[in-house]
Amino acid sequence: MKVILNAAMGFLALAIAIVVPASAEEKSLYERIGGYKGVAAAVDDLVDRLYVNKTLNQNTAINLVHEQNERAAFKLILATWVMENTGGPKIYFGRDMGNGHAHLSISNREFDIVLTECKTTFYQLGVGEKEIGELMAGLEAQREEVVTAKSN
Ligand code: HEM
User: Fold this and answer.
1) Does this model's pTM top 0.85?
2) Domain range spanning residue 42?
3) Which atom of ligand 1 is nearest to the CA of 118?
4) What's 22's DSSP letter?
5) Which of 9, 59, 71, 76 is most buried when burial is the number of CB atoms within 10 A of its CB?
6) Contact, 147 vs 59, CB < 8 A?
């Protein structure tokens, strides 16, 4: 009787595993924010926001990049970084965060401004609270490498 019961329980567990789809929690952040389409929408909105940010453009090195107006290329490379760093395809082809920003002398305040714009973009696109928390933590983790200005 015990053997039959054990076999039945085993079968039940197997049936549940097959029928019940993987929960949303098991999906990567990349999948939960809408895959490449979600990333593209966020990067598109964010970069347009950053290019016209008057405070960021007071930094002459940042302003120079914005004036060169290679906006489409910047959106592309940034999208690949986001994809790779949210558990999507590993296709980032740019520099590491330290080497990519060293010449810009970015301050903590400028870093905060960028993170604020990121959050605005996420709200604008209706990204979930949980995902926003994870995205913001992932961005915050870059601060040490990105911020190189001597003063705040
Ligand atoms: C929050 C984390 C950040 C991430 C994930 C990020 C991501 C990137 C990536 C992937 C690149 C391309 C690197 C390359 O060309 O090889 C880049 C370049 C750049 N980033 Fe960031 N960035 C961050 C913070 C910032 C901040 C805070 C600023 C300005 C205040 C900034 C301004 C720029 C500019 C202007 C470039 C272009 C540099 C150039 O082409 O000379 N980034 N960033």
Assistant:
1) yes
2) 2-146
3) 1
4) P
5) 59
6) no
